[in-house]
Design a protein that fits this description.
The protein is 71% helix and 0% strand. It is globular and about 70 Å long. The protein contains 9 helices and no strands.
């Protein structure tokens, strides 16, 4: 029963995420006006705006004008419901579970916006970065990494046993590592090619990812995102007629990788360390 309740809440949040995906890139309010059909412009009644269910009942079309409704809407709602259930499975009913569910929702919005518009809105990335740093002392991932951070500081001659401080330092290190890695790549590419090869939005995104996931999962995110981006990017470039200047939505792949690192990072990292 609890799973169904969390999934239901997740798809309701997912309905709001669809509003964000559509309106934020267009710099429109996410509060007003009410959602309307893109075909006839009529406001959507509450009974036609029930997540997933209304789409199925209406068979993916507007009740008034029969304009087709994008499959993006039920897909985003369902994915967000699953993300929230996964957060509960991983961290039960804890503040960390709520934070990681919100992180997954933010990544979902950024994945779709970057795929469609090639932008990563600062309102989401910078805001998420700040929240990630501010909540670090209460995050399970950073609490788990705190002893390692303490040992590293000890080697540098800095001694502290306060786990909250260690958790915050771990978040800061992950944040600087994530943003710093992409900044180095971006600067290096510009020095070699004399053109911008990576948007600053990707750099800020990785600052957010590092603040929430810590240094280990951040490295994993960069690796998985780069691998996914390379494979899919080659396919997209081929479909674009071999145009090497085709703009690849790297933020989309980083977002997918970040969610993967959040939920499967410990398994993947343990497997990697076992090989060494």
């Amino acid at each position: 029963m609890i799973y169904l309740m969390i999934f239901a809440f997740g798809i309701v949040v997912g309905s709001f995420l669809n509003v964000c995906i559509y309106r934020v890139p267009r710099e429109r309010s996410i509060v007003t006006p009410r959602s309307a059909c893109p075909g006839c412009g009529q406001p959507i009644a509450f009974y036609d705006n029930i997540p997933i269910l209304s789409f199925l009942i209406l068979r993916g079309r507007c009740r008034r004008c029969s304009t087709a409704i994008s499959w993006q809407y039920p897909v985003v709602e369902a994915l967000n419901g699953l993300l929230w259930v996964a957060a509960y499975l991983g961290w039960a009913l804890t503040p960390s579970a709520l934070l990681y569910a919100a992180f997954g929702s933010a990544m979902l919005v950024l994945v779709f916006i970057d795929a469609q518009h090639r932008i990563l809105p600062h309102g989401i990335t910078v805001g998420g970065w700040i929240v990630g740093l501010a909540t670090a002392p209460w995050q399970v991932i950073h609490q788990y990494e705190a002893p390692n951070v303490g040992r590293l500081l000890g080697l540098l001659g800095v001694m502290t046993a306060d786990e909250r401080i260690l958790a915050w330092i771990g978040s800061l290190v992950g944040s600087l590592l994530g943003a710093g890695m992409l900044l180095v790549v971006a600067v290096g590419y510009y020095l070699v090619r004399r053109e911008e090869g990576m948007g600053h939005g990707d750099i800020i995104l990785m600052g957010l990812v590092g603040a929430v996931l810590g240094w280990g999962r951040t490295l994993l995110t960069v690796f998985l995102g780069s691998l996914l981006g390379a494979v899919v990017g080659l396919v997209l470039i081929r479909r674009a007629g071999g145009d090497r200047k085709y703009e690849i939505p790297f933020g989309t792949f980083l977002g997918i990788a970040a969610v993967s690192a959040l939920f499967f990072g410990e398994i993947l990292l343990d497997w990697y360390w076992s090989l060494l």
